[in-house]
């Protein structure tokens, strides 16, 4: 695990506040699970937390941050306030409490959607004003040896580039936390036994996204972009696997997602043909031997 709970004696002091417990996270060695999120670092989490607080979302205080040298290079560390809470996992709650979590998640998302971040400094969060931005972002993660995938992405980028651009005022930019519902720390109020939000954690996968990207009915991201994101991530991991630089991740899950979505894209003719993840590994190995 890359996150630890520390008991501090004496407590950490900041201003007039004392923190007897803190959560320490090591960032930079793991791949984020959600689509459109690849890597994270201390600056990204710090900025996402800052922006969330601007929108009125309760978040843990960041007490310290920095970098350490490790065998796999420089990694970031983040020390955050430990938030006392009754529950931190939707998997451990009865059905009625899960319903409360869904309701609180909707309220929190509404708060995020009420703020337009277009004029704010949101770097280094990934920022997708349009669908074109997503595909250009994915291009940067696909290793050069996977020419078929690059060709398909190039075609989509070329087609989207020809579409007329909407004025900036046509859509707002919102802070999105793709795993928000599962990252709410909750407690029941003693006076009415209703669940309330203590804090929202897990901002490592946050990004800034344009409102025009979302289907007005389903509120989902463009399906093609989601599928290509999983395929691009699978290709990146195949390259890392061959070059002995595999990040901390659920590799089995990513391989399954790659195979599932690559097959769908091939059936839609968005990819010329279906290549298994194993065939990507072999292509990366051949390319490595030729270099």
How would you portray this structure in words?
This protein has 291 residues and is an alpha+beta fold. It has seven helices and nine strands; from the N terminus they run ββαββαβααββββααα. It has a four-stranded antiparallel sheet with strand order 1-2-4-3, with no helix packed on it. A three-stranded mixed sheet has the order 5-9-6. α3 (131-139) packs parallel to α5 and α5 packs across α7 (277-290). The mean pLDDT is 89.
CA-CA gap between termini: 35 Å
For the residues shown, what is the average pLDDT? 89
Q: Runs with pLDDT <50, length 5+?
A: none
Structural class determined from secondary elements? alpha+beta
Using only CA atoms, what is the Rg? 21 Å
Total helical elements: 7
The fraction of residues in strands falls at: 15-25%
Overall body shape: globular
The neighbouring-strand order within the major sheet is: 1-2-4-3
Largest sheet, in brief, is:
4 strands, antiparallel
Helix content: 25-40%
Please provide the ordered H/E string of secondary-structure elements. EEHEEHEHHEEEEHHH
């Amino acid at each position: 695990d890359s996150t630890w709970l520390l008991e501090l004696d004496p407590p950490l002091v900041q201003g007039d506040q004392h923190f007897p417990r803190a959560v320490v996270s090591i960032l930079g060695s793991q791949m984020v699970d959600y689509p459109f999120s690849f890597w994270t670092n201390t600056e990204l989490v710090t900025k996402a937390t800052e922006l969330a607080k601007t929108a009125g979302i309760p978040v843990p205080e960041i007490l310290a941050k920095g970098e350490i040298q490790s065998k796999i290079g420089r990694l970031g560390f983040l020390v955050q306030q430990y938030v006392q809470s009754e529950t931190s996992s939707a998997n451990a709650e009865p059905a009625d409490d899960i319903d409360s979590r869904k309701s609180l998640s909707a309220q929190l998302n509404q708060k995020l959607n009420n703020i337009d971040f277009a004029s704010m400094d949101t770097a280094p969060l990934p920022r997708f004003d349009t669908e074109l931005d997503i595909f250009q972002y994915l291009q940067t993660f696909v290793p050069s040896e996977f020419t078929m995938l690059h060709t398909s992405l190039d075609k989509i980028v070329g087609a989207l580039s020809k579409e007329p651009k909407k004025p900036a005022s046509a859509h707002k930019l919102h802070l999105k936390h793709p795993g928000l519902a599962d990252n709410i720390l909750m407690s029941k109020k003693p006076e009415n036994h209703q669940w309330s939000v203590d804090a929202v954690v897990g901002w490592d996968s946050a990004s800034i996204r344009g409102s025009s990207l979302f289907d007005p009915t389903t509120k989902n991201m463009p399906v093609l972009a989601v599928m290509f994101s999983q395929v691009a991530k699978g290709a990146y991991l195949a390259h890392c696997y061959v070059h002995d630089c595999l990040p901390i991740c659920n590799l089995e899950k990513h391989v399954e997602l790659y195979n599932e979505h690559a097959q769908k894209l091939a059936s839609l003719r968005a990819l010329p043909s279906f290549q298994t993840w194993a065939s990507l590994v072999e292509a990366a190995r051949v390319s490595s031997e030729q270099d």
